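Lab meeting tomorrow. Look over both lines:
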Amino acid sequence: MSGGEKMGMEEAGRAVRAVQALMVRTIGAELANSFTLKVITASQDVERFEIETSDAGLIEIRGNTVSALAAGFHWYLKHVGGVHVSWCGSRIDLKKPLPAPGSIICQSSPYHYRYNLNYCTYSYSMAFWSWERWECELDWMALSGINLMLSLVGQETVWRNTLVRLGYTEAEAAAEICGPAFFAWQWMQNLTGWGGPLPGSWFEDRKELARRIHERMRELGIEPVVPGYSGMVPAEYGKRIASGGRMPLDQGLWCGFRRPSLLLPESPAFGEIAKIFYEEQENLTGSRIRYYSMDPFHEGGSSEGVDLRSFAKGVEQHMLNSNPAAVWVFQAWEGNPKRELLQAVDREHALVLDLWCESKPAWTSTEAFQGVPWVWCMIQNYGGKNGLFGNLHTIANAPIAALNDPAGGIMSGIGMAMEGIGTNPVMYDLLTDMMWRTEAPDIGDWLQGYIQRRYGSAPNEAMQAWQLLTASVYDAQTVQQGAAESLLCARPAPAIANVSTWGPKEPHYETSKVREACHLLLASREACGTSDGYRYDLADVARQAAADNSRVVYAEIMEAYELGDLVSFERAADRFLALLDAQEQLMRTRPEFLLGRWLEEARSLGRTEQERQLLEWNARTLVTVWGPRASATALHDYAHREWSGLLERFYRPRWVLYFASLRNALKNGCEPAAIDWFVWEAEWTLETDHYPAQPDGCVYEAAGRVLRLIGV
């Protein structure tokens, strides 16, 4: 993946053809003809690219890897062409003749690894993606220079085939496998079976999708990280072991779910299962995999009575049996990986992803993972929830500071490990920029360039808006799991601090700055209104302003209730519902905020109505109750979304029920009626009513309505 070896002529030809195809998909064939690509064939220690005007007047991009060539093309688009490629409103406005770089541009990456994705991303954002959506995402990764990616599509086929080869019937194997909205936690060994069973056609369809994904990854120089085998077996697997054999370990519960059991490497069955598992992985990917992700004690898995050093050696050996060059990839999260595991593994065959470096880096408290190479990662998003959040100064400075810190050990990469995508595009634009920088940019200067390419111009009002955002929502100094949450989405209760169990209890910023930023963005309409990215940002900032205001209005509701003031209660409750209705209207203007789009993606993957209903139930359940009653205490609304459809038909009716119970209590001097929220919510997940999948309405009018309601 790194520059390292000199690229042969055949390999160089494939690299050029892959990036040429990427260019055509990004800007069209006519504009792509304005570029020429060349591979730097000399051996290099780092990946690098160069951009300048050729003697023939073309834009020449030179790079020593396919990843460097792709990143060089994107660097030109961003920093010379003024183009913006984003999940949330792209702006590709190039015309011939293309602008030429004033002088040669040379950039190199100080990072061997440029990593992307989290297990959770596959459920919270990618659960129902088609090839067309995957193709766009892989292109975005290549443009950013990603060269290492967690790859989970089709893992259910690996696990099903492994179980069948162990003697399970296809029906028994399918019963062990989750529905697609919950795959992430099955592959992290947290739960099993929830959301299934899936039909046989699903496995074949996703196997074919995985083949296409891996083929494109190989073309674009992106190596896959796939699950390895560290002992996961069905909870009842012990019944299948011959008498006297070492029984699998009960791993207890995760958020109310029964975990799979853990088989130790000393068991004779471990080697048999590992061999089958790695064979099935290779069958899925079509190539010999080098990077294997394994976190056997993730989020509370029991290691009681386990000799961790011996366990690590055994797991590692079976991995190396599949590929002597294999690398065990760990996630640093909540006390994992355990110190004893890292002490036992071969450092040349291990890599740690420090997931939450932007807020709570693990490398600083673990002696930089005791000499094991590691990657500085940003989580940024939890549960796929909406919300403006981050710290731009941290992203610009912390990775480089860690790289140059004598106590930083073997920092080998930078990456993104978000639970959900499609939010806060500025954070990812900056982080991917930093993958090819050796010094931190001035944030003010960088932001001006960002706004210019995203909006097409950078008027004073837009710049002032972003200065306010940089000094508020994008200046998070606290350790918290994501953005300040909207009480519009909360399960009703007398006192509400956070919507999701681990969400922040209050905004970390002056909410007035977000309101003023919204006002200034709306005032930029004439200069920026042709930009889709501008319209997305206006909707998102207005959404956050309404979310912040929901806390103020809800406090007024409960204060009036406690005082027994029915008139003030009614007035405040009406304001709350009016704010919710305005939010619904606002979210309806953007495709990124539509429940209907999420449900349509899910249903489109079913071949029969029964299959479509199962997939829709998966999609509805994940963003509401999450699990059955036993788990919903902790996980309900963890993945809540401020989406059109959810606001109107899930959150609003829930609030109307609650306000009616409070109103009745005020009128009759009694306690509010008890409401079993789980029963009501679970019934909603079984519905199949239609939601629009296309946006509707005017974002300017909707944002203006929000501003009037919150008093700006």
User: Anything to note?
Assistant: The mean pLDDT is 96. The longest strand covers residues 48-53.
